[in-house]
Amino acid sequence: MRTLDDIREEYEFLEGDERYRLLIELGRELEPMPDALKTDATLVRGCSAAVWVYPTAEGDALHFLADSNAAITKGIVALVIAAVQDRSAREVADMDIAAALAPFDLKNQLSSNRTQGVPNMIALVRDHAARIAAG
């Protein structure tokens, strides 16, 4: 998975539809999430499309699997995951993920329908991290 900095660098050079294409590409690059993990417990509430996020711990690092049934939304969740992937649970729980995503200006780049679930994606990622950090 690309780093958030690499994605941001590319994103800044693009406009309009090219940014949509980049988001779709990011979604396609997500590690496959097994259907068995797409449960009510991993479902992000409040999204216009179905979005699932599942954390795994690899040593001290959290590794997230994510998926969506909509291409743009899958790209958005890929951005969220890129911000936190393979960081410690404590770091993710304490991180201001919204600030990390601010340079992408998603609210002004995408329809409100597509971005309404972003705070819920962030909250679910941070909640998972906090629970894991607490042991």
UniProtKB/TrEMBL annotation:
Cleaved signal peptide residues: none
InterPro entries per the UniProt record, alphabetical: Fe-S_metab-assoc_dom (IPR003808)
Species this chain originates from: Pelagerythrobacter marensis
Stretches assigned to the Fe-S metabolism associated domain: 15-126
Family statement drawn from the similarity comment of this UniProt entry: Belongs to the SufE family.
Listed SUPFAM superfamilies: SufE/NifU (SSF82649)
Protein name: Fe-S metabolism protein SufE
